């Protein structure tokens, strides 16, 4: 195998270099498409003072929620936080800083960061607390606020398949935030269900090119359901 092989043998190698006070961008939506093993490794490492950027913070006892248990997260940048009681407690106690961001704006912050764009204008949030203190410009008669892009020291991502060069395919709704998160990390680590040899993936089906990926690790996933709702049985 050539020097382009990005597969690592264990989680120690996968998260090597992560330290206190870094920014981590995490893919996933709720509990769908989250890098479960990489999150567990961050917990085991015991790093503190993290700024975590993700759509949400998991749930109590699973996903990013486990990083709250030892107060490893200093600041959370997210768009939805309603499924986590410990999150709410730490926020109300002043132990956790939270930057709530509209979901589309958060996605664009990651995408812009990965594209090397430092800031952009959006109408979303104008005239609300989201827009307070931010630069406003008018385009075609409509006011827009300036939002700064986001990059992270690490991006942790979950993919369905990847080849040894880091080319990734996501499955169904696990595409959510993962492709844009993958572009926005100085070091991007992808946890996958299956690793294949170069040339086995159809180039037309690749969602994240390997140029964005630094490390690939094969994981095992519980794929827990965040909220199960069953239809009542008709009598």
- The SS-based structural class is alpha/beta
Mean pLDDT: 94
Bulk shape: globular
- Please work out how many helical segments DSSP would assign: 5
Give the total of beta strands. Answer: 11
Q: How far is it from the N-terminal to the C-terminal residue, by CA? A: 61 Å
Uncertain stretches: none
> CATH superfamily, called what?
Glutaconate Coenzyme A-transferase
Strand content: 25-35%
CATH topology name, in short, is Glutaconate Coenzyme A-transferase
How is the main sheet built? 8 strands, mixed
Give the ordered list of helices and strands.
HEHEEHEHEEEEEHEE
Q: Any idea of the CATH class?
A: Alpha Beta
Number of structural units classed as domains: 1
What is the radius of gyration? 18 Å
Per CATH, the architecture is 3-Layer(aba) Sandwich
> Percentage of helical residues?
10-25%
Question: Could you outline the blueprint of secondary structure elements for this entry?
Answer:
Layout: H1 11-14, E1 23-26, H2 36-45, E2 50-53, E3 73-78, H3 85-92, E4 97-100, H4 103-115, E5 119-122, E6 136-139, E7 142-148, E8 152-163, E9 168-169, H5 178-183, E10 185-196, E11 215-218
Parallel strand pairs: 1-2, 1-8, 2-3, 3-4, 8-10, 10-11
Antiparallel strand pairs: 5-7, 6-7, 8-9
Family: Belongs to the 3-oxoacid CoA-transferase subunit A family.
Protein name: CoA transferase subunit A
Pfam families: CoA_trans (PF01144)
